Amino acid sequence: MAHKKLTMISATALMTALLGCGGGSGSAGETSGGDPAANFNCDGSCANQSLSVEEVTTILQQGVAAAKGMGTAATFAITDRTGNVLALYQMSGAPQTTTINGQTGASGGLEGIAVPSTLAAISKAGTGAYLSSQGNAFSSRTAGQIIQQNYLPGQNDQPGGPLFGVQFSQLICSDITRANGPVGPRPLPLGLSADPGGFPLYKQGDVVGGVSAEFDGLYTIDPNLQDYQESPEEVVAMTASLGFEAPAQRTGNSISLAGRSLRYSDTTYNEIVAPAELEPLDPAGFKSQPSYTNGQIRAGTTFGTAPSGIVATEKAGIPAAVLVGRFPTIGGRPLPGGAQLSASDVNALLDSALTTAYRARAAIRQPLDTSARVSIFVVDESGNPLGFIRSQDAPVFGVDVSLQKARTAAFMSSASAGTLLAAGVSPNYAASFAAFTGVSLDGSHAFANRSVGNVSRPFFPDGINGTANGPFSLPFPGTAAGPSWSVFNTGLQLDLVFGSLVGPILQPGTVPSSCTSAVFGGRLRNGIQIFPGAVPLYRGGVLIGAIGVSGDGVDQDDMVAFYGASRRGLDYVGYTTVGDPYLGFNAPLEIRADQIVPQRNSRLRYVNCPEAPFSGSNEQGVCTEG
Description:
By secondary structure, the protein is of the alpha+beta class. It has 13 helices and 15 strands. Helix content is 23%, strand content 13%.
């Protein structure tokens, strides 16, 4: 085949070029990894698109040509926006497996496990699709930046990544992501991926899927963002995406999160030379993968239509979306004295939270001052879903994560949390928590997800390297004997789902009915989440459920959950008689987890809300009191 040889500039030259542009938007977009020619100024309202079979074929051909130009053989996956695998292709001679390595020297958990390269490729492609929207384009490298022990990775004595723990979402055992259902969202076999080489795909400013390349034998992370390193997998995957590039206006480098620009890629489109000629694909290269693809190439679904699994609607006068035929608004299971959430209560909470998000400034979306786009779940005190809504163009990953968050807050605030944890997972994290804080997990305190996250980090207090781990986490490597922390061994979070995550890898086609032990019933069916964005709900001091939010920034998630459940939030949308006259559905102040001061004299947090959170408003202190 006649084609141009792919070239890569040195890491030093690339870093110099990027620093010379200064980061941010504007001219920096040309070196951000996105393509200025793909800018359509979409804000969530651009028409949704889809990939045809012919387009999927072209993407694969471009990737194969790039791999051949490097003298290597790769495995490729392409998904649509809700995770349907449109093609899984393995070149002759490509490595059959890849080994999990979190780059910390950790032991235990998923560390050192060799997994099929096909599964790694699906997770990487799906990550590019699930984390992206018309307002932001994130890659698997971006994912790696926001889940590590320090943010930014490589800078010690910084808090953990803002989406710390999100990698253990979108699992095949979840009741949100469905391997065998008629429509998506679909699971990702290894959860969200942090291994560079997975990118979103766009058409006319709309995210239509993701593409990945896997061939280096390591499923890993970049542990140091202080430099720019040439990544062959990124070069090949980016070449595959030619013609479907992310808009330069929307890539991570154009977005600041917690005061730091995000990383999209260590390769840019102006380094890529398109193949001069594309060869036909080898039919033998198409691979089937039980629960994901039958080995046939297929067209993508159009997001927002019934075949995608997520359909457009309107709620509270706001463009929104729901899951097709799933999670209608209902009341919670009966509680003594009729304290349970009614269907009308749930409807009020969803309206209030959705309106709060619509008023809020997004943290990880362009253009600036765009409203936050989130997914919202309300559950009862036993974790049963009572209702769901999502903003127009919210990233798909938040659907599963918002339910994980809601269930986590409800469970940890319940009277039986400690007993069930002691019976359902080893080691005894409940006993460790009680010894660490002097507080039992017996329903006496209300735990927001931020509170749970505080004690789920390898350092406590979070951001002070060298301190011992929180009681729901593991020691950082080199500080203690036994299993140690990495992004692939997070402690309680992974231990709860380990069997249901690894089982389908070892026995393809297996689809567990729950992510957690039968001890927990359905209370943690899709696992737990350990970054902010959920609060428990109360009536008369009685736990009646929780609300979970995930989308455009963790402080925004906190605010949408807390303010949406508050008296002020409910009043704003006209539900003046719903909930407590002072608190709405929020927990009494005296039982909130921020009353807990662990043995290291660092008070737990409850929620943290952004300053000047609402566009067109000077309102402040929106997360005080009720």
